[in-house]
Amino acid sequence: MEEKRKNILFINFGGLGDEILFLPAIISVKKEFPDSKITLALEPRSKGITALTDIIDETLCADIKTKGLGKYFALIKLLFKIWFKNFDIVVSSGGNKFISLFLFLTFIKRKYGYNTGKLSELLLTKAVSLYKNQYAANMYHDLVRDITGINTELPQIKITKRDVVPNSVVIHPGVSLMSIRKGMVKTVPAVIWAEVVEKLSDMGKNVILAGGPDDKDVIDVITNTVSAEKYTNMYGKTKNLKELAELISSAEKFLCSDSAPLHIGTALEVPTYVVFGPTDDKKLIPQNGKVIPIKAENCDCDICPCLWEHRQTTCEKLSCLNITAEDIVKKLS
Q1: pLDDT class for 183, splitting at 50, 70, 90?
Q2: pLDDT > 80? residue 4
Q3: Range of the domain at 114
């Protein structure tokens, strides 16, 4: 019988949403090897994942978003850290052909990653077929199907859930500043969000506004446009991701953009409504009826959803975000 105590390394570079979507794979392996130590290598911007789970024992950070040679120095530093940790298994996401070589250089005995060609088939213990046209949590979970027969379908986070506030809608309207700086427009303008707050309040909803530093611009438009008595302003009052998750858990309904809080709502199984534009909702939400996409009804773009598959930035036309406040409110009614 295989020894159940392992020292296991997971590598997943991406934003906080990616880390939440990666959790089911980690959870399934931890259930298979319950006495094991779990280490997650990730970008510094996503280290907040540790506030949402107790399954990760240690994190190793590598700032691969640095320009020029900085990315490669960060990976070399990560390799040095890995060499002294004596890992038994490594599981890495990402479809770059370089990843299989990086995993080979870790000198870890059992190496799992996506099949990116002959080199990955030669260097990895298992080169896993990459199927992108599915919910991303399932795509990541494919990496560990040779390690465990346990299947964790949704992200799971560990917080103390609050009592649900009757007739409440928690709204998190913003997206990450990094996506904005990269030219990825993923939500409706701030004036639309202000209209949504106004309309929901006029319908008698208990509107609760949430957000962090990245959301300041959209929150400012809302607070400068809508009378303060029409909503409870929790912007900046949740000090970390755990407190944000606890606030979301109190919602009868949760409304957000395509951003990390969407995946928190999914994990908590709160009825979640998400504004989608250029990204593919079928890859980012489970098809369980508890997460409802809000999309433009008359998008005339031939390649929508386009982001990542066809474009790395959004186009100027943005017909995929021709969504009105009425469209959004109607979905929540």
Answers
A1: confident
A2: no
A3: 7-144
Q: Measured between alpha carbons, how far is residue 13 from residues 52, 64, 93, 324 in Å?
A: 17, 8, 8, 34
Q: Which two three-digit tokens encode residue 6?
A: 């392992």
Q: Are 78 and 60 in contact (CB under 8 A)?
A: yes
- Residue 217 falls inside a structural domain: yes
For residue 83, give every residue at least 6 positions away whose Cβ sits within 8 Å of its Cβ, in sequence order, or none.
Answer: 106, 107
As a whole number of angstroms, the distance between CA 105 and CA 107 comes to 5
Looking at the fold, whether 172 and 128 belong to one and the same domain comes out as no
- Rounded Cα gap, residues 186 and 169, in angstroms: 21
Which tokens hold the place of 135? 């919910």
Average pLDDT over every residue of 192-218: 96
In what helix (H) or strand (E) does residue 38 lie, and over which residues does it extend?
strand 37-42
d(CA 235, CA 248): 13
Q: Hey, is 256 helix, strand or coil?
A: strand
Q: What are residue 183's phi and psi, to 5 degrees?
A: 80, 25
Indicate if the alpha-carbon torsion angle 129, 134, 140, 146 is positive or negative: negative
CB 35 within 8 A of CB 5: yes
Task: Look up the CATH number of the domain holding residue 222.
Answer: 3.40.50.2000
Predicted TM-score (pTM) above 0.85: yes
Q: Kindly report the number of other CB atoms within 10 A of residue 202's CB atom.
A: 11
Asked if residue 226 has pLDDT above 80, the reply is: yes
3-state secondary structure (DSSP) of residue 152: coil
Spatial distance between the Cα atoms of 173 and 194, rounded to a whole number of angstroms = 10
Same domain, 279 and 140: no
How many distinct structural domains can be found in the chain?
A: 2
Other CB atoms closer than 10 Å to residue 240's CB: what's the count? 12
